[in-house]
Amino acid sequence: MTTHRLDARRLLCPMPVIRTQNKVAELAPGDRLEVLCTDPGAKADIPAWCRINGHRVIEIRERGNEIVLLIEVGDGA
Fold first, then answer.
1. Are 26 and 5 in contact (CB under 8 A)?
2. Known catalytic membership, residue 13
3. Could you name the CATH architecture of 3-72?
4. Own/partner pairs for 55-63, CB < 8 Å, 24+ apart?
5. What mean pLDDT comes out for the span 50-56?
6. Is there a contact between 42 and 13 (Cβ–Cβ < 8 Å)?
7. Which are the contacts of 20, defined by CB distance < 8 A and separation ≥ 6?
8. What is the pLDDT, as a whole number, of residue 76?
9. Which of 4, 11, 13, 34 is catalytic?
10. pLDDT score, position 77
11. What is the pLDDT of residues 3-44, one digit of tens each?
């Protein structure tokens, strides 16, 4: 298992989800992806995308105006 980081700050919907999707496609099942966002909609959009595509959101936290989502890549990647 490897942890990767994606900087999606200053991007607006739907770009954080699209960038997350593109990065996850490069990863192996069990890998983790930390996504940094500033778009408040990402708190709902990325977890919804994960549920649909078989990935797991491990953690969502906020740091000032940043949202950090930690995702575990599922077998459907």
1. no
2. yes
3. 2-Layer Sandwich (3.30)
4. 55/24, 58/32
5. 97
6. yes
7. 6, 8, 33, 35, 46, 49, 71
8. 67
9. 13
10. 44
11. 999 999 999 999 999 999 999 999 999 999 999 999 999 999
Can you list the alpha helix ranges (DSSP code H) found in 1-77?
15-24, 42-53
Confirm if 4 and 31 have CB atoms less than 8 A apart: yes
Q: Whole-model pTM above 0.70? A: yes
Q: Give all strands (DSSP E) within the chain, no chain letters.
A: 3-8, 32-37, 56-63, 66-72
Give the type of residue at 3. T
Tokens describing residue 13: 């919907």
CA atoms within 13 A on the CB side of 58: 12
Where exactly are the structural domains of the chain?
3-72
